[in-house]
Amino acid sequence: MAQFGFENDIHSILKLDMPITNGPMARWQRKASSSSSSALSGLSPSKSANVSLGSSKTPSKTPGKSKKQTPCKMGGDRFIPVRNNKQMDVASFLLTKENEPVEAKNNTALSSETQKAWSISLNGYNIEDAKILHLGGRPLNAPEGYQNNLKVLYSQATTPASVKKTRYISSTPDRILDAPELRNDFYLNLLDWSSRNFLAVALHNNVYLWDATRGDIIFLMKLEREEDYVCSLSWTKEGSYLAVGTSDCKVQLWDVEHQKRVRSMASHTARVGSLSWNDHILSSGSRSGHIHHHDVRVAEHHICTLTGHSQEVCGLQWSPDGRYLASGGNDNLVCVWPRVQDGGLGNRSQAIHKWSDHQGAVKALAWCPWQPNILASGGGTSDRHIRVWNVSIYLFIFVELHGHDDRVFNVTLSPDASTIATISGDEIICLWKSFEMDPVKKAKEKMVKSTTNITHQSIR
């Protein structure tokens, strides 16, 4: 009989029609429990959510305490918006899934595509992409008169006025031209750029022109005697004539378009190392320290002599308005001379300014194009300073461009004021794109420009 009793007990255990008391709560039971909890009166949405999470949560109220809820002060607590039951079920499922053992996750037989299809069919979206909690509702408005103690300590916004535009200056040459047989003499001026975009360069006793627009090389002239050499070059304002100073104390004037010498003027007793134009007046500086003014329209061209330097005049530059002539010499002096009147002044002209602040030969001279009374002067190796003069005030300005292996003899500016040409004792000419071109001029240049792609070619 005991045997039959044991079998009855086994059958009763294996029967499935009895309720399971120690298993997880079914989904419909969780829904019924949550719906019944939300139906209770006197509970806020936040309390409803706490009840639906299960009995394992810590009660929101301490037993034995008063049921009166402490009023929430503005700024003392955070606002929790409404969350519906479906969101809570999804959140509970996702949290339970994250806590599953790794073995249980790996034993899932369904593919990810199948799970995604089932999730979309049952829930209307892929549950893998669902958020654990989705907060909704609008926060409560602050009561009237409420002030927030939090203040902005620092705030910065980029405004057009605060944006600093910095012009880029390339430290490498845009183009390099060979200049063989260039005379290695610091006091000579062997380079000049015309308003018609022709770069003139003197190589020993020859003068060559480089057409910067087309890239062509033009041979202009050669001195008759092999022992003579070209000392200085200077274009007229229109760019149609080129003045050439020579070692045999002469100044030649050449018609570039017809490649013909117009005249040869002799007045100096030493080589002519510097030249500068002021309309029909050509000024020339000599190794003797004298400066001569030539009126190229008349036969008696020599109209005035300026004596202010004790050594070679290596720099000459007329101001843009033609009122002043600046001269620099190997005696470290900078002189400013008045404009020459028609008919000449003989030898009576005196310098209106003479500065001796430089500690080296002054060859580099440049007038400000928009303020004609401002002059910049550059000293030689012993000085290495650029000084900007306005009566007795001077400032120091400098920008370093590295491209030569020897000292730089001359610097000249292109007619569009965008490129600087430098020539050095290493027998090369470097062209530097150092200034921004005017947009209108740039557009016109693109229409007519047909420059070759050669970046390194010989003058000859």
Question: What keywords describe this structure?
Answer:
Methylamine Dehydrogenase, Chain H; 7 helices; 25 strands
Fold and architecture overview:
There is one protein chain. This protein has 460 residues and is of the alpha+beta class. It has a domain at 191-410: Methylamine Dehydrogenase, Chain H (7 Propeller), CATH 2.130.10. 16% of the residues lie in helices and 30% in strands. The protein contains 7 helices and 25 strands. The protein has helices spanning 2-14, 27-38, 45-52, 85-98, 102-106, 112-123, 439-448; strands at 175-178, 191-193, 198-203, 206-211, 217-222, 230-235, 241-246, 250-255, 260-266, 272-278, 281-286, 290-295, 302-307, 313-318, 324-329, 334-338, 353-355, 362-367, 375-379, 386-390, 393-396, 408-413, 419-424, 428-433, 456-458. The strands form 6 sheets. The chain has a 5-stranded mixed beta sheet with strand order 22-23-24-1-25, with no helix packed on it. The chain has a 4-stranded antiparallel beta sheet with strand order 2-3-4-5, with no helix packed on it. A hairpin with a 3-residue loop joins strand 23 (419-424) and strand 24 (428-433). Helix 2 (27-38) packs antiparallel against helix 3. The termini are far apart. Residues 39-76, 392-396 and 452-456 have low confidence and may be disordered. Residues 177-392 form the CDC20/Fizzy WD40 domain. GO terms for molecular function: anaphase-promoting complex binding; ubiquitin ligase activator activity. Keywords: Repeat, WD repeat.
